[in-house]
Fold this protein.
Amino acid sequence: LRPPQQEGTLYVEAERPVRVRLAESDVSPAELPPGTAAFTTFLEPIVQEGAGSARFELELRIHEDVCAAEHFEELYVYAYHPVMGW
């Protein structure tokens, strides 16, 4: 899957064929951790009900006009879970 507003790819691995769509938003699903800022939109893979488990791998390219090259090493990818948080 490719996020419309980003240069990247979301890979999906599942036990059997599964339908997945990608929701993308400029709004965070929850308050960001202190001292952090978002450099991309927020992505949520939506898997069809009853599909079983799936594993996701995300590959993103952050352009230098968004974050200077000297700061790339400070970037982290965060995942949010409604119960566990960031």
Notes: Residues 7-74 form one domain. The chain is about 0% helix and 35% strand. The two ends are 23 Å apart (CA to CA). The chain has one domain: 7-74.
